[in-house]
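The aim of this short unit is practical: by the end, you should be able to scan a pair of folded records and say something sensible about each. We start with the first protein, listed as its amino acid sequence and then its structure tokens.
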Amino acid sequence: MKIKPYTIILCLLFLAQGLGAQTNGNSQYLLIFQEGSRSYSEMRMFEAAAQFRNAQEISKNANDWAQATYWVILTELAMGDYGSAIRDMDELDRVAPKSNYARDMVYHRARAYYNQGYFEDALICFKRYNDSIPAGDNEAADRKAAAFFWMGECLYSMGQFGEAEKFYSWVVAKYPNSPKVEVSGYRIDLIKQKKIEAELLSLLRWSHEESLRNSEENQRKIRTYENALNAYQRKIAELTQGASPARTDELPSGGAAPAGVTAPAGGFPASEPAGVNDNKTEDDEALRRRAKQLEEEVRQIIEQYEQKAGGEN
């Protein structure tokens, strides 16, 4: 079939218009993207985010779209809008899972999780990022050091100080030229300080508990001696009452029998047999002396334990 010349010319015109539109589209994308980059460098993040989002919307190919989306995410992270950043990361992974930004997105996702308080999820992402970095150049070393440091930060935030110290120590030992060395050393010092504080707190707690136990034991002994002292005092009171002079108002004076009472042959005895009262008095006196001696011993014991308890407090 013979193609007419005007048909060829018409096709060339359509092709030229398509190329021109694509060129104009790319020029517009580059212009807006450059404006966003300038705003980002000047820390005008709200403007940068809007400009990158505009560039994303007018992009004509997957690479431009991925590039604009990546910088939208960076501006959202810089503004602390972690929820929006994670949503855009999910969209970037869905649309362009094998883009040049996929590996870096793992690191940024981990940072977003960390800032949101999802330390376990962040730890997993930092490990994924670390495992994806090949060894062999300074940039890779710095990235590995950063990943190790942030893994330590996740563990530190979770209260696992011993495990966190291992990651900080790896940064200091394996990557001495990394920017993370100084802050890792600072974290190690903090962890050592926390260990010392924990040991002191444990010692103080043990000392306090021991003091309470001693105090309770002393109080128990004091109560025991007080009870013993009260018993001795009651005994002394009983002995004192028992040793009081016999009542003489029970019989008439002179030993006469009351009316209606017949005196025995020979009359009533004037008194008890000789020696009976003397023995009773001596026994009572001995009991009183013994009670007073016990009272003095108990008093001395109580004073001794009170002084001991006061010295411990």
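Turning to the second protein, read its sequence before its tokens, just as you did above.
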Amino acid sequence: MLIAELWVSSLIAIQWGWWKFLESPRRTYNKVIYYRDKILSTIEYLQSESAKWRALFTTIRLPYIFLTKGLGVSPNMAVSMLVAGSAVGGGAIAAEVMEGRSFSRGDSGIYAASVVGNNAPLDVPTSYTDGDNTLMISLGSTPVREITIENVSVGSVFTGSALPSGQQNVVDVGGNVVTGGTNTRLEIGHLIFENSRCKKLELIDINAHTINIIGNASDGQSIGPSPGTARMLAIGGGHHQAEAMVTSGGTYDRIQIQAPSSGVNGRIGTLRLSNLYTKGGICALYKLTVGTLEILTNEVGMGDGFSTKEFIVATSVTGANITITDNVEVSIAEPATQ
């Protein structure tokens, strides 16, 4: 009888041991689920709070955005107006509106090549001068896959604006003359200048494989490119090239894209300038080496008659393949200030 009881007790103990063994992973799993849910709950809470703070700061910036983008007020004037109507100091307002400036959002500034990293222009400006509303890209040795600037007003075309002192080019795209060194050029795989309004459009010292000048209207024109032997050109850079820089909409006193100020040429895969509405200065393209150059359906003129040539393609512009068609002379004046 005692032996039977011991045998039954041993069997019960073994079964209980196996049950505890099988129950242990379940308890462990339940603990993991508990901490997982707690972590996810904390993350969701932080994300919610972050969204609320972001919405608050966006709302705070709305008056500045409305003044600069909606009414065309210069950044300096907008800051002055906000300071005048605010109980806080000018430094706080300036810090508020300067935070988060970017090329993709259409903010002016100098977007220069970084001295560290991949030596390419970034989406945030490297500097910004108070009262200066210029959009400037200063290239480095790293190729940029694409630069697109479209649907913008430039120069003195909007109320309260003017070109910076000493400048005559409202749109300035080109290389650099380097004193005592090697001059630099912009190398561009595909350059498109289209659907834009300019007081004067000048193309000087450009070597291209293919040139298409089609559908432009101007208040006097002189289109005389020369035959050339430039090769087909594409700008690559693989993983190490800079990402696309794209902006749509905005008001600027000037747009400038320049090559480095050293013996290294600036390199762009595709440069597209579209629907630039300008007044008060020249649209100038110069010192370029291009694969395909397209000048399409622009309006050029200052209303002074056909004898003065506002659309100029100089003999220093050369192409291996040239198409010039449907370009007409019509009376065109500068647009009125908006």
